[in-house]
Amino acid sequence: MTPPDSAPPTSNAGTPRISVVMPVYNSERLLGECLSALHASTFRDYEIIVVDDSSTDKSRDIAAFHGCRVVPSGGRLGPGRARNKGVEHAHGDIVFFIDSDVVVRPDTMTRLLAAFDRDPGLAGIVAVQSPTMRFRNLCSVYKNLWMHYTYVRRAGQDVPLFYTTAAAIRRQAFLDSGGFDANYVDPNIEDTDYGQKLASQGFRVQILPDLEVEHVKGYDLAGLLRVDFLRSMSLARLKLRKSAGGIGTNDTSVPTGYIVSVPLAGLAMLALFVGLVLGNRTLLIANFLALGAILVLNVPFLRLIRAHGGVRAWGLSCGLLIIELLAAGAGSAVGIATYLAGKKY
User: Fold this and answer.
1) Radius of gyration of the chain, Cα coordinates, nearest whole angstrom
2) Relative to the CA of 280, which of 6, 27, 69, 330 has its CA 20 to 30 Å away?
3) Which of 161, 245, 163, 164 lies closest to 203 in space, CA to CA?
4) Is the domain of 186 the same as that of 214?
């Protein structure tokens, strides 16, 4: 193993401006690349705190080799509680959360610090997932462009979001807010929940469209549908748990057109099935119209896929969108049912 080019320096006063906090669980495949990218930063006044969430691989050794401060979790905490623990050991006035499969650019920390300095009232900043990616199969292109699209569309606004793929917050704001909800054990929507919490407490968070990072994550069909099912299930529980007075509001990054498309996809499939069984032409036409409406509602996203993936990816993504909407609808239904049965998280 080759030593890193340079260990993270501390400031002249002994206290860094930025504390990078990274929860890690069995991340040896990409952790070294992630840390090397941080060490290549043009900004030098930082520290890296890796919270090892009881890994069974070489993650802890890799982090230590790269000069990070390694904090053992003391038992599986999940990413939200691990981030809370990392902040307990942070010294910087800005805390930069990133995942262990994220590669920053050399100017990432310089840009985010400049944004904080420009706007003293800004509590948090969310980076944008780059539209260029190393995985080029259809499901990876689809999902990674979806993440890029849902971030960028909210750029320049104060948002109830804090997606910790790569996001920074003033340390005092984090402490004042109470941190991530400790009830989330598995990685899922703990950052969505926290973003809504920040907004409800009056903290301002913005997405910076020019602050791009690479999220090195590939998907196959089963993995993509599983992620969407579980996320939709958890989002349904979150909405029921926290938004009884505003059940119709959209306080996520998901476009309203996509949300409307979820029940439309279910109705389209129901119309198709019943129409075929009964030989009912009206229901078959209704299926066709519902599918057409779904494509219209999601034109901006599909246009982005065509721009970055080509005509073939665009055509296949039209079909993949319908399948994904059905998985999201099933997840939402399970989330509602299990919430009513007493499962709140």
Assistant:
1) 21
2) 330
3) 161
4) yes
Of 219, 243, 275, which closes a domain?
A: 219
Q: Checking phi first, is residue 9 left (phi over 0); if not, alpha (psi -120 to 50) or beta?
A: beta
Query: Residues 173, 174, 177, CA angle at the centre, nearest 5°?
Result: 80
Phi, psi angles (nearest 5°) of residue 183: -75, -15
Residue 116: how many CB atoms within 10 A of its CB? 19
Give tens-digit pLDDT for 210-225.
999 999 999 999 999 9
What's the CA gap between 149 and 119, in Å, rounded? 25
**In contact, 208 and 109? CB cutoff 8 Å:** no
- For helices 221-242 and 138-152, give the axis angle rounded to 10 degrees: 30
CA distance 253 to 33: 28
Report how far Cα 332 is from the mean position of its chain's Cα atoms: 18
What's the number of domains the chain is made of? 2
Q: How many residues in the chain?
A: 345
In a domain, 102, yes or no: yes
Phi first, then psi: give them for residue 325, nearest 5 degrees. -60, -40
Residue 207 lies in domain: 18-219
Structure token digits, residue 59: 């993650």
According to DSSP, the residues that pair with 47 across neighbouring strands are 19
* Residues 208 and 325 occupy one common structural domain: no
Is 41 inside any structural domain?
Answer: yes
In whole angstroms, give the CA distance from residue 33 to residue 31: 5
Query: Using one digit for the tens of pLDDT, what is the confidence trace for 6-45?
Result: 445 444 446 899 999 999 999 999 999 999 999 999 999 9
